[in-house]
Task: structure prediction
Amino acid sequence: MASLGSISMKKLWVLLGFCCFALLSVVDLVSSSSSKFDELFQASWANDHFVYEGDEVLKMKLDYNSGAGFQSKSKYMYGKVTVQIKLVEGDSAGTVTAFYMSSDGPTHNEFDFEFLGNTTGEPYSVQTNLYINGVGNREQRLKLWFDPTTDFHAYSILWTPRKVLFLVDETPIREHSNQEDKGIPFPKDQPMGVYSSIWNADDWATQGGRVKTDWSHAPFVASYTGFEIDSCVVPATVAAADYSKQCSSSNEKKYWWDEPTIGELSIHQSHQLIWVRANHMFYDYCTDTARFPVAPLECQHHQHRH
Result:
């Protein structure tokens, strides 16, 4: 697991792409209904590795020459982002398909889904991670309970002032609560873009890098549909000191993610999370005593459900 803390190639490649977020004059909410790709996103690199099937489906391909990536046209504070993905079929060993939110700069925040390729017939693994103020090393890994290559499945990130929640087909797979009252930092003051990419990571992605990418199976294709962002748009003209104020509820405006009920899992969701952790999770940084002889502070306080 030594490579888990390293900077992923997806970030390096995204930094090479253009970053021209839309200039908006007012804070607005994006509709939660499904949108076409080009209403919310734009290609960020390797445009020639994009294939559009009608108005609804986008495919990105990885070959020996390049992967590909896209990014949102705007940046957001809080809310929920969702995309439906059909992952690379067959022998996808060495490949990573990523869906994530991230802010900019050396002290950035980031919420990651990384789908780690496999050899034919093995279950897909998904790694989640959080960077807070530039610090990551919060990986969890689980095996999905379905074949994500045969159909589209929804992957969502819910971000509220109280928590970050990762969901698969609306089933929670990870909960990271706000514990600022215990002196633990929480991502709340940086607007984030929404990104996805497919790239070669055979130095670590499959069996710790022991299984390399077999380029005879290229191109490796990930398909996307169901693009949804229900969040607060942060215009590029807003000063950093005003980010939180612009996207927090007040007497003039109410945001759904500030409702107290959004801050707690329902009984059903709690049971789902317990089931996922008990039956499908196979790595949790909080229990990795080799990497962390002293458990990270949030792990000491966090309510991990087993």
About this structure: The longest strand covers residues 220-234. The CA atoms of residues 161 and 188 lie 7 Å apart. The helical segments are 9-16, 37-40, 243-246, 267-279, 297-301. Residues 1-8, 10-28 have pLDDT under 50 and may be disordered.
